[in-house]
Amino acid sequence: MNPLLEELAGGRLKEFTIIFSGLSEGIHDFTFTLEDDFFKEFPNSPIEKGKVDVELAFEKKRRMLVLNLELAGQVNIECDRCLQPLNLPVATQYKLMIKLSASQPSPQDVKEDIIYIAPESSHLNVAHPIYETLILGLPLSKTCEMDIGGEQACDPKIMAIIEGEVQEEETNKTEEETPIDPRWAALKKLKDK
Description:
5 helices; 193 residues; alpha+beta; single chain
């Protein structure tokens, strides 16, 4: 089933349902605030906490709906390098078109920014498009330098492990403490060359 048409999570995201059948043609503005409860509704979400304001300009036409989304706020996410939590500012926008059509388009006519729904549909749940817009608006690389405040650096202990400094020290200690099996001594000599 199309996530735009279903009632998500037993109605916990009901506030994101727009009943457009009673709306007149033209632009209608909606505002939403995404907080921790919103992110919990999406399994395996990289975002667990945050506060994001959403402005939705919902344009109703005779055979089409146009959603202009603008999101701004901050989310709490893990650093890609050291896994420390960081507060990341977000600001993104997206335009989604929904065509009211009795027939589905052929595969060659499908466009990524257009969704087709039945003309008798009366409502949309915009939680999924909002969530997807937010996720796609995140930078590809999320690091501690991007944290709001800008002074946080990656955890030095984790960075040492990543750069191999700690691993080499531990390997050297292990080699010194553990006697080498004579069967492997010849192979070790080849490796050291």
